[in-house]
Design goal:
Blueprint lengths: L7 H11 L18 H11 L8 H16 L4 H5 L4
Length: 84
């Protein structure tokens, strides 16, 4: 049985790492408590050593995932029933 996240932020980090292979270890759920979708996506890409402007495909992918978990009122985060 795998790790079950307790918050939407934990679930976001778990998905970015487990499903998409991003190195998010320096980030904690608390690091995601403030900031916009764009701020969070830029942080993830910078940890990877990527440039959000030059690597726009990855940037768009991460933005979509962040939005789905944290900002979309009909996204997976909202549907999960987990606290933010």
């Amino acid at each position: 049985m795998g790790y079950r996240p307790n918050t939407q932020r934990e679930a976001l980090l778990q998905e970015l790492k487990g499903r998409h292979g991003y190195v998010v270890n320096p980030l904690t759920p608390g690091d995601l408590a403030t900031g916009s979708r764009d701020d969070i996506a830029r942080r993830v890409l910078r940890i990877e050593g990527l440039d959000p402007v030059l690597d726009s495909k990855q940037y768009d992918e991460v933005c979509e995932i962040v939005d789905d978990w944290l900002f979309d009122p009909r996204g997976r985060g909202a549907r999960s029933g987990l606290p933010r």
